[in-house]
Amino acid sequence: MLKRRSCLLGLVATALGCIGLLTLILFPQSSEWDWTYHDVPSSWPAWDSPYPDDVTLEVSPLDALADTLLRVRVTGLRPGQHIALRLWTEDRDGLRWEFGGVWQADAQGVVDAPAKAPVEASAPLPDGDGLLSALRPVASVSHPFFRPAKPYTVHVQVEAEGRVLAEARAVRRHLATGVTCLELHEEQVGVYCRPEGEGPFPAVLVLGGSEGGVPREVASWWASHGVAALGLAYFGEASLPRSLVEIPLEYFLAAVDALRDRPEVDPTRVLVWGASRGSEAALLTAAYHPDVAGVIAIAPSSVVWSGLDFSQGPRSAWTYDGKPLPFLSTALSMDMLRMMAGVPVSLRDEFEHSLDGASPEAFIPVERVRGPVLLIAGSDDRLWPSDRFIDQIVARLNAQAFPYPVETVIVEGAGHTATLYEEPQPYIVERIVLGGTLEDNLRLSRRARQAMLDFMNQLIRRSPDERD
User: Fold this and answer.
1) Which residue has the higher pLDDT, 356 or 232?
2) How far is Cα 347 from Cα 383, in angstroms, rounded to an integer?
3) Most buried pick, 43, 164, 357, 375, via CB within 10 A?
4) 190-247 residue pLDDT tens
């Protein structure tokens, strides 16, 4: 009986643990980074090749952040001529990622990619856009995301009639010029990234999900856009709990204080960011800390869920003042058993069924937040019902006459995946169905990035007196 109970609890833990895959896919963690800004040539030297002089390949921008679209323009072609356009790069493991497509030149002998859709392609190009998002590995991989070198080089080649007509290269980086990052191993465990200059900068506390570790990607992205960021680990690292269970909210509250105390940070403009399971911590931190200026929650939850360690039975993921917060556990089903057998399944129904029986005490007291709220999700989230969670959060805020702006971004048809960068979208699904299509998930990624930057800009423009 005890063995059977342990097995069932393990299934619940597995289901909840899959929620961490979102943050891992959205914002993959890395154990070590080279935080140095690497200079590259402002223009690449010409290569000795017998290319036709009248064919020109323009790639822009040559050197940019990895969230920047790559544009390719080929001129000097014959009107109506078909060309093959090939792109490739190597990830940090040395694995080659490629994309190939065939384009037809217009009446002026010009091909503009991705503005003009290809005649055929090796992977979908949503709306003729997203060249880098269409890269695919040439060999099978065991993980669903692109793990780029920092920075990485994209090679572009134009071919026609069996020969190479032109070649070019572009660089994409995850760290803007002047951004510095410091690894933290004492009161807070994580990484602190700050923009170039004296400040004062707005700041964000970044909280990943149930994959654990340090959310370096997100912290460096914010810092590259002018926002100081503390990417905080809260389990799964040395000196921290081993699993996501009964994590003290005081740890996050102290991290907010540490951010506000930094001399280059504007203490009136510190917000919290969290994705998936990290959204619980983000919303709770904003609710319990009186000086948090706002909160961003990606694929959020409206309730507190159980932690991931079931060795002592179901326990809350979070505590406050030494007491576990009321929580909800997922319902068991045949879908979970199929998932354990390696059959991809959607877990949305399991979470919705559990949500229908949730006690009022398990809901996050979002009405206590003292600043604007931004909530982002896809309507076809098949991992858990983040769009429904958003509706519940908004309804709770409206019922309490919440005095601050609330913005929601729900992208129709998008699932549980998005990225901060113009890079390959997750395409491997093992054991769970995430929802959405490449096109809709790409739209979610871009709308999420823009919404987050707009939200921060609005926060910067607001007077601190507006929070009182």
Assistant:
1) 232
2) 5
3) 375
4) 999 999 999 999 999 999 987 788 999 999 999 999 999 999 999 988 889 888 999 9
Note the pTM of the prediction, 2 decimals.
0.86
**Separation CA 60–CA 119 (nearest Å):** 22
Tell me how far CA of residue 272 lies from CA of 67, 82, 107, 202, 207, in angstroms.
Answer: 21, 50, 52, 11, 8
How far is CA 163 from each of CA 155, 170, 357, rounded to the nearest angstrom? 16, 22, 65
State which CATH number among 2.60.40.2240, 1.10.1670.10, 3.30.70.3450, 1.10.246.130 fits the domain covering 56-173: 2.60.40.2240
| Cα gap 348→353, rounded to integer Å | 9
pLDDT digits (tens, 9 = 90+) for 168-178: 999 999 999 99
| DSSP secondary structure, 303-371, as one string | BPBB-S--BTB--BSEEETTEEPP-B-PPP-HHHHHHHTT--B--HHHHHHHHHT--GGGB--GGG--S
Tell me how far apart the alpha carbons of residues 112 and 298 are, in angstroms, rounded to a whole number: 34
Q: Where are the domains of the chain?
A: 2-32+175-467, 56-173
Q: Where do we find the tokens 């190479």?
A: 164
Instruction: State which amino acid sits at residue 53.
Output: D
Nearest-5° angle of CA 245, CA 373, CA 210?
20
- Tracing tokens 């007491």 back to the chain, one arrives at 323
Cα-based angle 16, 216, 410 (whole degrees, multiple of 5): 55
CATH value of 2-32+175-467 in 3.40.50.1820, 3.30.110.70, 3.30.559.30, 3.30.1540.20: 3.40.50.1820
Q: CA-to-CA distance for 205 and 297, rounded, in angstroms?
A: 12
